Amino acid sequence: MARRLMILLGVLAVMLATSAPALAESEPMLTGVIEKPELTTYQYGTHSITDEVGGESYALNSEDVDLDAYVGQRVTVFGASVPGYEDGQVEGGPPLFYVTRVAPMGGPAPGSSATFTYELAVECEPPVGAEFLGFTATESLVTTPLTDPDGDGVYTGSQTVPRFAPGGPSEPITISPVRIVQGPPTASGPLGPEYRIIEDFGAVVAEDRTLSASVSFCGDGNGTPVVSGDTNDVGGKPVSAGPLRLPATGGVLPLAGMIGAALLAAALITRRIIR
């Protein structure tokens, strides 16, 4: 009898050990970034999440977990769907999921970010101490150093930017400004360091893309660098800044002065003759 009981207990232990993983795997879960919408067309749930697996959005509610602590984070939430909220049955809103626990996943959600790759072709030797940077402004100014490790004159670097606004629509955002600039900084503005602009790409949609520009530091005959990518906004149209030229002594300005002096002397002589 005791032997049979031991065998039965052993069988039960094996069954529990094999069924536990299956029970864990079947626990309802959603993975995505928790958001806290400020305004919705439905009046239930305190937070929301878009499941990375199915792509469906859910309203979230919980009395067991402080969901505010996970806003903006990529997590897996565990719990159960609340009956009666499927397929927009209540106020045309999303399904409601009650959260019992949260597991942070770390890292951005797949597809939630984009990569800007910068390429700057540099002709001739840059000034001593010059540096080149990719430059964007989202919530703050972000710069990315551009380097030329193989010495071929093409400086490159990449920058990760958010594709979507937190809690906003699923359309990629537009980032502005996006620039390639030259350092070191020329001044300090209210938002941070200001740089010499080599190329301003304007407003750029947050998708994976390569942003290319070129700049030349070759002399123009007077030893003045000509920066081909540097632009100024004149009347809404970008125009080349062009080479900087200083008045030369013995040139146009002195000649004009000599002509003016000669005309004045002639006028005085004529006046005396008439008198």
TrEMBL record:
UniProt KW keywords: Membrane, Signal, Transmembrane, Transmembrane helix
Transmembrane segments: 251-270
Signal peptide: 1-24
Protein name per the record: Gram-positive cocci surface proteins LPxTG domain-containing protein
Provenance organism: uncultured Rubrobacteraceae bacterium
Source species taxonomy: Bacteria, Bacillati, Actinomycetota, Rubrobacteria, Rubrobacterales
